[in-house]
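[Q] Does anyone have a clean structure-token version of this?
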Amino acid sequence: MANPAVFRNKTDLKRFVRHHDGASDDALVEAINIKLNLSVSATNEGRHHRLDAGRMLLDLRKQIETEHDDWWKWQRGKFNRSRKDIEKLMAMARANDPEAAAEEVKAKDRARKAVGAEFRASHPIDHILKLVRALTDDQRAELFTKLKEEYQ
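[A] Here you go.
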């Protein structure tokens, strides 16, 4: 980073998040990465850090695209998150109700983790059969065809 911002404490970071108009790309990248590192906790504060990061990502994307750069190429390697997570963060931030969107993502994550826990706790074949029952007839036929090809 050419001219990284200096965030001596949380107050500096909060001030920057609220008033980052005109900030350098490098300063925004640094602040976003700090917010993402702080967001690791499952608390409400962690969710607010993710929303702040999402809002700054949207602002940064606008800056980068205004300079006629491709956002997805430009951002590669700058953040310690996957493209999928960056997309989620920006989608939450641009939602009509970002708090509700963040809560929805949290609920989906909980449901996904519960399915994984159920799989680990139950017999795998029972879980697989449950998943097969959830398929449409066409999907089930495709699955059976692939299974026959794989396990003749």
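[Q] Thanks! Anything notable?
[A] The longest helix spans residues 98-121.
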